Write the structure tokens for this entry.
Amino acid sequence: MREESTASETVRIPVTGMTCAACQSRVQRTLQKHEGVADASVNLMMGNATVTYDPASTSPLALVEAIRGTGYGADLTPPEQTAFEEQHVRDAAAQEEFHDLRRKAIISGIAGAVAMIVSMPLMSDASMAVHGGGAVADPFMRWTMHTLGPLLQSALPFLYAAPAGVLSYGLMILTVVVMLWAGRDFYTRAWAAFRHHAADMNTLIAVGTGAAFLYSVLATVVPGFFTARGVPADVYYEAVIIIIALILTGNAFESRARRQTSSALRALVDLQPKQARVLRGGKESDIPVAEVVAGDVIVVRPGERVPVDGMVTAGESAVDESMLTGESMPVAKRIGDAVIGATINRTGAFEFQATTLGSDSVLAQIVRLMRDAQGSRAPIQRLADRVSGIFVPVVISIAIAAFVIWFIAADAAPAVRGFAAAVAVLIIACPCAMGLAVPTAVMVATGKGAQLGILIKGGEALQRAGDIRTVVLDKTGTVTEGRPTVTDVVLADSSQPENVLSEDRVITLIGALESRSEHPLADAITRYAHERGLMTATPQEFSSITGGGATALVDGARVIAGNARLMQEMGVVTDAMHATADRLAAEGRTPIYVAVDGNVAGIIAVADPIRATSRDAVQRFRRMGIDVVMLTGDNERTARAIAAQAGIEHVIAGVLPEGKVEEIRKLQAAGSVVAMVGDGINDTPALAQADVGIAIGSGSDIAIDAADVVLMRGDLMGAARAIDLSKRTMRTMKQNLFWAFVYNVVGIPIAAGILYPATGLLLSPILASAAMAFSSVSVVTNSLRLRAARID
């Protein structure tokens, strides 16, 4: 059960400049240590920090300053910015980032090709022996010198005739330009991290390429310093440029892939209509949606989107609500029915009155919920956080150790080999993949869920849902349709005829009483009384007895309606009607006793048919290895009759709301991870107690607020889909973390030269940069597979 302090507040702060898990970890640790902060979660994918804090001890501005103190940018989202506007800003920034990275990658790639060509005449015989000859096999360098070299020498003889100094200085100038333009962010961010006594991915890239550049500058300016010591005065300008180009290329692919992970959220935002046809003063006029006010009458024609939320006042139609529920079949709309903004009117024209607008609209709330969910973190991310906190210092230490070992043990050109190995270690290490492994999966999964009409409130709910072993189902409105109807009215026999009430009188009294109740069964009785034209009385002194029924004073008579337990508590004798109640319950109907002035007056039976998909959903739970329990306040016989229709074996009946909570606690105490599926106000405590609360979206707003997962379609199968999606997402998260760790565990030792003693294989810094550039892309791509997952 999740408990939160009522005194705390939560703020979401955009953070700029983060590039890897180490950045994310540093910002998060700083916020968690900040005075007054109860919890802080930083999301690399979304580029934001979600902080729960005590407003008496700190403030959002102080939190912003704390983030800036780590070397990253931070600012508060303007309070007047809507969820739609915020998403548009984020999309524009992501698109601009991708175009900028792509432009820099292409130009630096061209520069790298030129640098490679110009560098060929500068490769000495000594470097050939070190990097490409004999058993020593740097695959990239060997291919370059033995295949490309002779071709270039015959095609561009003037290059080989040019003075080495001219070529070297030309390459140095080209490299400086690429470093200052295309690679500028790597160095400025690394410097910012250094000033704040930290290190991240940019540190590794900056140190690796910076060391190669400085080595090359020395070899260009004072080549004799190297040759006098038997070391070839080689330059690595082409390696610096190509490394930058490859890393930028990987970043561009990553940026594009990351943008695809939020495609579902963008699709929702794009659904918002821009214009509304408003009826004012008897005239129709098209106005911007932002100018619509509550109470405006809006006209919608076939094929048009409903511009805002409202209530139908004239006409009939069928509306496509698939963008909310995932259900492709249009929903019939008549006078009095609610319509939701951004849904599509398929057939007839109708008019409706605008109700909720702007940030209060259903679409805006869904966008806000999805945005917050995609910005949340799953607990499994903590492992990556712990590793990333020490990752960069460990990699730098390994690079230094690789240089020292090569310098001491190498049989030829130890300094050059040691230097190349150290640079390769720095370049191949990739903390990015660890930072993206979990949030990319969360983003894609929440988007996929939204397409299915499943709103999952964040990574923690996703992870818990993937571990569910028991599903507890409420009966009314969950297993059943939640639209009960009166099936029987049975009057009581009495030895005193003067005490026998007519059927109309009984319906009049109980109809008036139940008109004040919010229970679905009460709604059925009220509708039945309306249809019979018997809603003629007004109740007074109404009192609801939780889990029992209700009582009120109607036309001077004390009326009680409820179950047998309530009647017993009220001193009403019901023995003569027990057989009738048992028979009705055995038929799957709920018997409601009616007592007037202390005497039983009869029984009204209400039936609520099970949902068409309930039996299939129960079977699907079982196929997933999940136990199914039906938990209801209804009587035992009715509950078991309904459970039998749905294929549920384990039934707990006659349970009050607090009893539901206790039953869930018992299941949890037995070691089971429990999901509760419900829709009513009475389910709210149980939804909160369960490890995962799943609310039917057609239920009360309170139940939805208490839930971790909201099913926009009134369909129990959605709960099965949500759990299936969660299990698939957990598998994807674990795959991503596995490959992110394995990549670094395997790649770093290979770059250091661990395979050399057995195979003579060395790894070029250029190949290392290519591997690093695309490691994070592979993680994002694996997460994107969830978009195509068949959750049927």
